[in-house]
C3HC-type domain-containing protein
Amino acid sequence: MIPVGAAPVKESLVSRVDKVMERWKKATAPMKAKSSHESIPHAVQAPKDVFTQCHPNNRADFQARVDTYSSLYWFAKPAELNLLTCARFGWINTGPDELACKCCHQTVLCRIDSRLGPEGARKVAEGLRGYLTTHHLDTCPWKHNPSPKSFAQVNFWTPESALAEVHATIQLGITAWQLHRLSLPIQLDDSFQADLQHHLAVPTLRDVDEVLTALVRQVDPDSRVEDADAVVVACLVLCGWKPAITTLGKTSSGGAVPLRCAQCNRTWAFPVQDAADESRAAHAHDVDGTPFPKRVKRSPSVAKLHPLHEHRWYCPWLRPAHHGDQDDHVDVPGWLQCVQAVKATLHDTSASADKAVSTLEHAAQSQGDGDKKKLPAAALAAVKALLDFT
């Protein structure tokens, strides 16, 4: 016997289940479509957060981590904790003496007590250096998968690649200097000039200036950069500095061109003066057309420039990487690799010139020998002419 009211109860349960399933389908299907950027025209893709992903072999991601370090938060750290080493293991700088991994959300406080002696500070630094690996969670992809050591080095595989980088950076420097002139008479540091002369293997400092000027003229023969400024530009380029100008013809910090090293993440202001202002001052006239009287120029103090000293002390442009981060195949700092590449071109040019001179001398000698061979025949012809005449 079927109880009264059983059928309506069964129908209500089925209908309720159907309604729930229908609501679930309506709720999930549109959500999937709305969250897909492919299904929405002109949808703006969200920027990739490089810090929450582990791409150890991506140089751009490595550079993004390096850019998080500043002298305000990461100051006077020992070689074991230089920013290049920390960035290799996936750490970014998030606060004063603080490292963070955005993959496993771990943090490391790398503060070294200033009251410690050199030996104590070294032991603390070595312990913190080990934390760069061990403090990642076991599930973190950075724990055993750091970026290559070559990322923390300046490594040109061939002299040709080093020279190509030098030429490209000089072109960038020429662009920065086209509308600018140095505001102070810049002189290269004596020790730096001596190092250049030694590594270029040229007899005098004047030869050094000629080599560097020719290097700039080779890139852009029509450049308006003066010879003295060309030497400075070449030295900055050989030492790894690039002008970081956003607007051509305008300085960003009151008459200074910011120069930046991507390796040690250091930026410093190089003083310049707008050539347009100087030209207007030179051709300034009064209302009646008479030129303004010239003012007596004060002799400014000569600024000594040592481009290598502007780097952070651990920068691979200045010295090879720390022994724990050094590749077995790279033991030469970046600036010396570039200087050696320029030196190789000098030797190639010299060898070509010597070969050309040797070829000319050989041709002249051959021509002289040919004249000597023709001399008896010419003498015999002259004798015959005399005999016929008589």
